[in-house]
Amino acid sequence: MDWTDFINWIALPAYAGMAGLLWRHIEADARRFETQAQAHDKAFTALRSELADYKLVVATTYASQGYLRDVEMRLIGHLSKIEEKLDRLVEGKIKE
């Protein structure tokens, strides 16, 4: 047996050990990736649920533009009537 055969016999278990360590590292990364993917899925589901709840609150709480225009027109009408009455009252007081 010469020197190169001896080195090959020593290197062979080292190669197997390195392959084993590489395999363990790959498996650990796969498990970590799966755990992170599950955590991201849970977070995404929670965010989607919160967004749906927020949309519901907005839809039920805030008035539509059409409704706001209607209220504005009614307010303007009532304020115009009050203004007319005040003008008539002031004109009546001035004439006296």
Can you give a write-up of this model?
- This protein has 96 residues and is mainly α.
- The chain folds into 2 domains: 15-62; 63-96.
- The protein contains 2 helices and no strands.
- The chain is rod-shaped, with a radius of gyration of 40 Å.
Per-chain topology:
Elements: H1 3-61, H2 65-95
What's a quick, concise take on this entry?
With 96 residues, the chain is an all-alpha fold.
Keywords, please?
96 residues; mainly alpha; 2 domains; 2 helices; 94% helix; 0% strand; rod-shaped
Q: What fraction of the residues are assigned to beta strands by DSSP?
A: under 5%
Overall tally of domains:
2
* Derived structural class: mainly alpha
* E-strand count: 0
Query: What is the overall pLDDT average?
Result: 89
Which shape, going by the Cα principal axes? rod-shaped
Q: From N to C, what is the helix and strand string?
A: HH
Q: What's the helix count?
A: 2
Distance between the termini: 136 Å
Rg, alpha carbons: 40 Å
Give a quick account of the main beta sheet: strands, pairing sense, barrel closure: none
Fraction in helix: over 70%
Poorly predicted spans: none
